[in-house]
Design brief:
GO terms for molecular function: 4 iron, 4 sulfur cluster binding; metal ion binding; phosphogluconate dehydratase activity. With 602 residues, the protein is an alpha/beta fold. The chain has 22 helices and 16 strands. The relative contact order is 0.11. The mean pLDDT is 93.
Length: 602
């Protein structure tokens, strides 16, 4: 089916807007590619240093008779999502040797967990860790001894950071290899209910801890559809994963087979062969539009609005919040995965998963079908599923019907006519709201404001019983320049309790919310941020605010608000401790959320 005219119009506008930076980027990548395999240009001494510890692979590396694969890994064993990566390098080396190549761990990148740091000082490093990861990936590949690369990463900032880093070496092929989700544990909705009971003082910490441990119980990604699993979706829609590989659980034969194939595929795409496919040719404007479509169709994480903008700019492509909003208006919601439903990603995968969603979107002309991917040309390849047949990995046609229509639906009978995210703009500035999990009766909230300069103060007011009526909680000075733009997910139980009492409630902030949030309306990423003189700094307690996710507006209804002086906040207490003092240069140079909240100055 032909591409929907509106989707083509959005794409054409992005291509035109990006013409100059994209052309400059591709020119750099073509120049790098023209040099040929980089290690051939190193001195003998340089090569000896690079191969000294390569053991049985030394001979191949020294003679240059096979491709050399660089492994960039986010392994650590504190994070369940990344613990499986401990054994991946051995699998990748063996697979490379099986096709006459070699593989070396090029370097590691940090990987932090927003779940661990929610409400803690470490959360203020979270967003900045993305750009640290990009730089660390650049350092890992800077030795120029690799013909292709594989990237091992899953969670919130890790995949976006790795994509940015990969594009700095965009003349190399790149395959992203996931670890997969943990097996299903305590249902996410049950876990959320225990959290609300604890916030309301209706259960103790022992019961809370038991519920959390039952939910997060083994290796793999958290099973709700937050930022980590949205990243995995994105890598399939944009062609950097092997088809059907995102949601295969760790420590299984299929997971190991897909990992090994990732190494073989990456080497097959290098300039040493006949199917040279650098990552700069995969991540073009159409690929990013396909990624936006996937984000809306699955009700993905709000964090990806920031990350996709930054990822695109790393390759010279300029996305705007309006692009996301227009795609959202065009694309229906086809998935119900917690918090947008009761299912987890394992249930989603079993019901048809990403392959079925891609198939349905292709039927509706809502994806560019002709993009280049690591599997070959065309997204139809991503409607297939991997199988082990006599011990060999093969791909077969995936299901063309939903195996559970409460989890995955069709283009003809979507869960909602539009996507999961909405751009907001008005007298309070510009922001975004995730609406896929918000009931329609909460899409418009008009209520008096209560203003706070920290989430701790907001929670203290809740505990003191101060929220007795309808309220829009404003938490400001939470933007990237102020304190690194932390997620404010620890406010979710409090806000959900108020909403459950029948109060009209919403959140307005220049910070972020968890990619798993959504049942309470939240206008987030508000720009300009308070520390930059945004109108959110002029809100006072009692101001009547209006958040309208239907019309896409965010307003302070007090006519005199714009004439008020800007509020200020003493932020110095949050600029040191837990490593925050090391990130002063990042706070000083970071851009706005709407341009990707990046320190790279694109």
């Amino acid at each position: 089916m032909a591409v929907h005219p509106k989707l083509q119009q959005i794409t054409d506008r992005i291509v035109a807007r990006s013409a100059a930076p994209r052309s400059a980027y591709l020119e750099r990548m073509r120049a790098a590619a023209s040099m040929g395999p980089s290690r051939a240009h190193l001195s003998c001494s340089g090569q000896a240093h690079a191969y000294a510890a390569a053991g049985e692979d030394q001979g191949k590396l020294a003679t240059g008779i096979g491709g050399n694969l660089g492994i960039v890994t986010a392994y650590n064993d504190m994070l369940s999502a990344h613990q499986p990566f401990e054994v991946f390098p051995d699998v990748l080396r063996a697979a490379a040797r099986s096709v006459g190549g070699t593989a070396q761990v090029a370097g590691g990148v940090p990987a932090m967990c927003d779940g661990v740091t929610q409400g803690e000082a470490g959360m203020e490093l979270s967003l900045f860790s993305r750009d640290v990861i990009a730089m660390a990936a650049g350092v890992a590949l800077s030795h120029n001894v690799f013909d292709a690369a594989v990237f091992l990463g899953v969670c919130d900032k890790i995949v976006p950071g790795l994509v940015i880093g990969a594009q700095a070496f965009g003349h190399l092929p790149a395959v992203f290899v996931p670890a997969g989700p943990m097996t299903s544990g305590l249902a996410n909705d049950d876990k959320a209910m225990v959290r609300q009971k604890f916030a309301a003082g209706e259960c103790g910490r022992e019961e809370l801890m038991a519920a959390e441990m039952a939910a997060y119980h083994g290796p793999g990604t958290c099973t709700f559809y937050g930022t980590a699993n949205t990243n995995q979706m994105l890598m399939e829609f944009m062609g950097l994963h092997l088809p059907g590989s995102s949601f295969v659980t760790p420590n299984t034969g299929m997971r190991e087979a897909l990992t090994a194939e990732g190494a073989r595929r990456a080497l097959s795409l290098s300039a040493l062969g006949d199917t040279y496919t650098p990552v700069c040719d995969i991540l073009d404007e159409k690929a990013f539009v396909n990624g936006m479509v996937g984000l809306m169709a699955t009700g993905g994480s709000t964090n990806l609005l920031i990350h996709m903008v930054a990822m695109a700019r790393a390759g010279g492509i300029v996305l705007t919040p309006e692009d996301f909003s227009e795609v959202s208006e065009l694309v229906p919601l086809l998935a119900r995965v917690y918090p947008n439903g009761l299912a987890d990603v394992n249930h989603f995968h079993a019901a048809g998963g990403l392959g079925l969603v891609i198939s349905e979107l292709l039927k509706g002309g809502l994806l560019h079908p002709d993009t280049m991917t690591v599997a070959g040309r065309g997204l139809a390849l991503y409607t297939q599923e991997p199988f082990l047949q006599d011990g060999e990995l093969v791909w077969k046609a995936g299901t063309d019907v939903s195996l559970n229509d409460k989890i995955v639906s069709t283009i003809d009978a979507p869960f909602a006519a539009t996507g999961g995210l909405k751009h907001l703009k008005g007298s309070l500035g510009a922001g975004v709201i995730k609406v896929s999990a918000v009931k329609p009766e909460f899409h418009i909230i008009e209520a008096p404001a209560r203003v706070f300069h920290s989430q701790e103060d907001a929670k203290a007011a809740f505990k003191a019983g101060e929220f007795t009526g309808d309220v829009i909680v404003v938490v400001r000075f939470q933007g990237p320049k102020a304190n690194g733009m932390p997620e404010l997910h620890s406010l979710t139980p409090m806000l959900a309790i108020l909403q459950g009492r029948g109060q009209k409630v919403a959140l307005v902030t220049d910070g972020r919310m968890s990619g798993a949030s959504g049942k309470v309306p939240a206008a987030i990423h508000v720009c300009p941020e308070a520390v930059d003189g945004g109108p959110i700094a002029q809100v006072q307690d009692g101001d009547m605010l209006r958040l309208d996710a239907v019309s896409g507006t965010l307003d302070n209804l007090n006519a005199d608000a714009a004439a008020r002086p800007l509020a200020s906040a003493d932020l110095t207490g949050g600029h040191a401790g837990t490593g925050r003092e090391l990130f002063a240069p990042f706070r000083a140079s970071v851009g706005a959320a709407e341009t990707g909240a990046s320190v790279f100055g694109w």
